[in-house]
Structure formats: structure tokens, C-alpha cells
Amino acid sequence: MLKYTKFVREDEVLIAVVRRSWWGHMGQMSVVFLLVFITSLLSVSFLGGSTLLKILFFLLAAGTIWRALVLWMSVRYEVLLITDRRIIDVDQRGLFRRTVTDAVYNRITDITWSKSGIKETFTGCGGILITTAGSASAIEIRPVRDPKGVQELIRDVAEAYEHLFNADKRGLHADLPAQTG
């Protein structure tokens, strides 16, 4: 979990890291495996051929490496971080495009989980949609394992945050419940 500390403030506690299920990366994984297969099949004939064939081979190999790097970055950094103070959504699109969105618990208006389609039904995966007050956008991550459990965890932490927030407003001292994750 150390790789996510750059998204978490010093005074926050990281409670859980929710990753997309590998089912969510199947399309990209299929493309990478297909490119690796084609590149390996063509390597012998292209490398022994003319200069144009060698250039085509190296372009195909470079494209394969690029797609593999994009997939690796997506798998590594597309996460939903649940801290004791807020939700942080990290969306990695490609190698050089990352969007980080956060929502403080007292701004969250709705947490919805859903399962749609045969793949999500059989794998037990689904999606989480978090809407916030005063924002046109929502936080969504799909597919995740046990979306209902993730929703319950977020609600529990949000309730604990609200309890702590209200106690601090009244001048009382209260702590968050024991961490899970």
C-alpha cells in the first residue's frame, strides 16, 4: 500500500484499496496477447527479410510493448482508495493521463452498487457509483469484487466520519471505529 501514499494526506489513514477486477482488463489483455503472438510468429520471417520487413517488425514490436505498458499502468493505478476522511478515485488512462478525484464523506449523497450482464453475475463483480453534493460528476469504478461489501465499508466509514465530525463540532472527543481492510 506504500505506492498509494502519494494520494493520501499525512493526517489520513488508508483503510482499504479497491482495485478493478482483472475481468475489467480482459479486452486490453486480449489485445496484448494477440500482439505478442503475432509478433513472435512474424519475427523469424520479418527479421530474415528486407529492410522494410524489419522496420515493420520493429514497429509491431514497439506497439506491442506500448500496449503492454498501458495495460500495466492501468492495472497498477486504477484504484479506489478509502481513507478515514475521504474517497479517492485514481483513473489511469494510458501512460501519461491520470485523473484523481476525491470526495469528502460529508459531501457524499449516494453510494450505489450494481451488477449487470452475465459476466458480472457469474464472477460476483459489479460497479460502485458514488455521487456527491454540488458536483456534476460522480465517482465510478467497475468491475470490482464484492460491490455490496465495498458499499457497506464506505457507508460504515462515512458514518464513523460523520459521528467524529459531529462530536468535534460539539467539542467532544470521539475516535473512528477499528479499521478494516
Automatic annotation (TrEMBL):
Every YdbS-like PH domain range: 82-154
Listed InterPro entries: YdbS-like_PH (IPR005182)
Residue ranges crossing the lipid bilayer per the database entry: 29-49, 55-75
Record keywords, A-Z: Membrane, Transmembrane, Transmembrane helix
Entry protein name: YdbS-like PH domain-containing protein
Source lineage: Bacteria, Candidatus Uhriibacteriota
